[in-house]
Amino acid sequence: MKKRILLFLIPAFLLISCGEEFTSLAPLSQRNMENFYKSESDFEVAINGAYDALQADGTFNKNYILMLEMRADNAFNGGGATGLAAAMERIDNFNELNDNGQVGEAWSASYKGIARTNQLLASLDAGPDISADVADRIRGEALFIRSLLYYKLAVMFGNIPLQLEPVSSPEVEINQVDASAIYNQISGDLQSVVDGEMLPSSYSGTNVGKATHGAAATLLGKIYLTMGENSSAETVLRDHVLGEYELLDSYADLWGVDNENNAESIFEIQFKSGGIGEGSAFTDIYTVTSTAVGGGNIPQDVTEDLLNNGYEAGDERFDITFDTTSADNNNDPNEIYVAKFDGTIAGPLDGGLNWIELRYADALLMLAEAIGESPEAYGYINDVRDRAGLGDISAATPGTFEEKLLDERRRELAFENKRWPDLKRFGVAKAVMSNHLGLPESRITLLFPIPQQEISVAPDQMEQNPEHQ
Description:
Layout: E1 3-4, H1 20-23, H2 30-36, H3 40-52, H4 57-61, H5 63-70, E2 75-77, H6 86-92, H7 101-125, H8 132-157, E3 160-161, E4 171-172, E5 176-177, H9 179-195, H10 213-227, H11 230-240, E6 265-269, H12 282-286, E7 300-302, H13 304-309, H14 317-321, E8 322-323, E9 337-338, E10 355-359, H15 360-371, H16 375-387, H17 401-412, H18 419-425, H19 429-437, H20 452-457
Antiparallel strand pairs: 1-4, 2-7, 3-5, 6-10, 8-9
Helix pairs in contact: 3-7, 3-8, 5-7, 7-8, 8-9, 8-10, 9-10, 10-11, 10-15, 11-15, 15-16, 15-17
């Protein structure tokens, strides 16, 4: 049986808004879709439109912060619990409703990006008259972007529709699958990108920032770890990432507009300020841009647990991650903000900072996780610790290997949207958040509710996650 098309499956061509060449085509129709994907320049414009989906408020620019970082124990909603902030407060306290606007926006924006990549991939399959090298590269980029979005959706929602073809009809069959099927699909897609060497190791000029071979391999390693396939994760990270990047000498050198796309960076989502609609929101969200953290826009405050218990004495990352100059002696979270996202903004939500999604320190810690407790694994952890001015740890250091590794990831990757996926992957999300919030573990849900509007469109093909029924 077929049902009305879900919102996120609107044909990709109607959703792309990146570039005058795309938006000037009129009328917007299926005929234009069929006639557009002809030249190499057509495909370059289209893949830029797919990257643009990563800049959306519903994805990396705002809502992923709420659902992958604020959800955990590093940050909390600083906007209060009434009015427009009530929805954020519900997410923060595991009490969100299935009509939560931020959750719904993350769902729809992610699928809009997926729709764009589906159209691109189908157009490549049609055999356009473009060079094989360009076709392979754009295919690799599209598969990377689609895999990244599906990975985020699977972590957040679990049981989601798997749509791999473009939609050109107002009716479509919804194929809702569990997260394991999503991970199987995208790991296979990324393995084909890596094995087929579809992507270059680096770019130059205006192409800097696009997905590389190392980005595909790093994301693949993360997905294998999420699947529990540590041996496969070790292989791909060791063979395709280890030694291909470097840790910068100072943690401070990672941050700021002048340090973007550096030698440690594996994949950054590119933003540019200046009133052109390409600015980032992180400076507003995390730092003092007017009278308070967040400037009135989903402000994210720092938890006392992270400030008081998260860092070892002498960890140089603390004073780089946080600005405590206005804080009192009690480390009041309301007087401290996240300095690693500090920067100049051209206007509200118009900062120039890129979002660093994958970097080498993350890859080294993932490789340690994949290998398991051993001198080699501790060596990679200690490489990261040494940069932070800390001494080495070993099997003799108190705590389990997993506890020590998770603590190191928390400090190194604070506020980079890694904490909630990490807590889930390490199997401690319920315990950690129950202790953090003082709630029974039964109140800690591992998945967000599927937006009710999506279920209402196809009630006999879509089911709500059991935790929210």
